[in-house]
Fold:
Amino acid sequence: MFDIKLIRDDRQTVEKGLQAKGAAIDLGPVLKYDTERRKLLTQLEELRGQKNAANDEISLALKEKKDPKKKIASMKTIAHKIDALEPKVKKVQAQISDILIGIPNLPHPSVPVGGAEKNKEVRRWGELARFDFTPKTHIEIAQALDIIDFERGAKIAGSHFILYKKQGARLVRALFNFMLDVHTSEHGYTEVFPPVLVNRAAMTGTGQLPKMAEDMYFLPDDDLYLIPTAEVPVTNIHREEILNEEQLPVKYAAYSACFRREAGSYGKDTKGLVRVHQFDKVELVKFVKPADSYGELEKLVADAEKIFQLLELPYRVMLLASGDLSFAAAKCYDIEAHAAGMNKWLEVSSCSNFEDFQARRAGIKFKDKATKRAAYVHTLNGSGVALPRTIVALLENYQTKEGTVRIPKVLQPYMGGAEVIRK
RNA sequence: GGAGAGGUGGCUGAGUGGUUGAAAGCGGCGGUCUUGAAAACCGUUAAGGGGCGACCCUUCUAGAGUUCGAAUCUCUACCUCUCCGCCA
Structure:
């Protein structure tokens, strides 16, 4: 929920931020409703005060064995006035919430203003793979090695659903185990394994609802959604909670399957692993003190990068421009791995600082010792990392002339000691 | 799926129509005592909204209702627990 106070106090900054994000929202109406709400609320509270006072008098009269009839009658009059006013207040409050819930987070000042063309490469790691033969795409490699069956995946569920086989299936298991191990034992994250179905409140809390409804699988009989990322259940672990300042930062690493309808992206990446409806991902989620959140964002990106460094896969880190940011994000880095077969940079991780945007919607606070008040935490999350595109990079970068695929050192223990994937 | 019992502050838990925003305990914070700590004792300690402020209003899972008045009564939804059934 966007902070109405910020709109009230600094309308220009909000408008500028929204414009940078490409969200054309007229703040006039919400401010008008806000003024009206406060006017009505003052009246309502005045009446409620009268009612409470009358009630005290009645209760006192009863105690003193006096007749409260007259007082009851006057309280009745007040109650009628309140009944008339209450729906008006509720209505205007609902109008305000409807607008606020649809306002995206503002970009951080360090974010370049503009569309995707303004995305900025901030660093690059590793050497691009070079071959003395023409490298194949992961589709050709996987089919030749019989480790992915695209046709039968489609037969079972539909196109863009993947059936991994043999060392392909093992590779999936190897990768998320490896990633979880790195993040829990080296980066200090607590492992969680969340539900992949969540309710409406959870989806609203992290900001997927109301805007992203058409991109999610929904089970109407149970009013439940399949998660598009573990960010949703994991961030909602602490929904409507007040955390202790000492326990911050809280850091979770979660493996989950993720489900995306990818509505509207038909015709894009129609083949292979680049865009699929169900995929696996290890997600990192942090709850931090507001003052620490930008430092924590840099660490989060570094934690995700570490996976590619260990896998020895070349990548670059992109700072997203304002127009390319998601609804809830204030600042975001994408990690893009290079896939040699397709000769493309593939987005494999997205690390974002949401500041207090999600915390506000989900009611996640901490007890601030300095002020002795409950304040919103800042939430962050990043993929650490998404599997299918990492598999694309692995297959395409580690392919050999013979058609086999070398397994990076760190993964070999997870692959039963195998050094190569062969048919 | 069937039967029953519940959902109260950071936690446990009292409260069955009117000074109850809510007893008590635990935990937290401050103090006395102590070289320091523990123990003991004293005090303090919910969140949100409005107002410059004294202060006022809201909130006992959520929504609807009964009543002059609801944590307390009624209905609905959701959730939890116990027993039975089914089941990986």
In short: Residues 38, 41-42, 44-46, 48-49, 51-52, 54-56, 58-60, 62-63, 68, 71-79, 199, 241-242, 244, 365, 367, 369, 372-374 of chain A lie near RNA strand B (CB under 10 Å from a C1'). The domain at 4-100 of chain A is CATH 1.10.287.40 (Helix Hairpins). The mean pLDDT of chain A is 92.
